[in-house]
C-alpha cells in the first residue's frame, strides 16, 4: 500500500529511515533480477538485431524490474527530501530551545541547584589556622577545596 504525500510527511524521522531502508532493499532485489537476466541492467537491449525479443532473457521480468526500480528511485528521492526537512526542523527546534535557555540565563532566570551545606562553623579558636582564614561570624560551608562557598 502506497502512502500519499500527506501521509509521508506525518511519519517520524525514524519511520522515514525505515521506509528508506525498505526501498533500498527492494531496489537491490530488482537489480538482482536484472543481473540474473543476462546482466541487461537498466539500459541493456531487450531485442536482438532482427527486432525479436531476446530468447536468453525473460523480457517481462526485466521490464517489470526496470519499471519498479524507476518507481522506487522516485520514492527514495521523496523520502530523502522528507528526511532532510525533518532533520532541519529538529535542528531548528533545538536551536530555538537553546536560544530560549540562554536568554533566560542572560536575564538571570537560570535555575540553579545549590549544593547542600555539609558543615557549620560555630566556633573558631584564636591562633588556629582557621582564625586567620575567616572572620569570626558563623559560616556555612558547602565545599572544601581550592574553591568554596560561604553562606
UniProtKB/TrEMBL annotation:
One GO BP: proteasome regulatory particle assembly
Keywords: Proteasome
Nas2 N-terminal domain span: 14-92
Gene Ontology CC annotations of this record: cytoplasm; nucleus; proteasome complex
Pfam families linked to this entry: Nas2_N
InterPro entries: Nas2_N, PSMD9
Protein name stated in the entry: 26S proteasome non-ATPase regulatory subunit 9
Taxon lineage: Eukaryota, Metazoa, Porifera, Demospongiae, Heteroscleromorpha
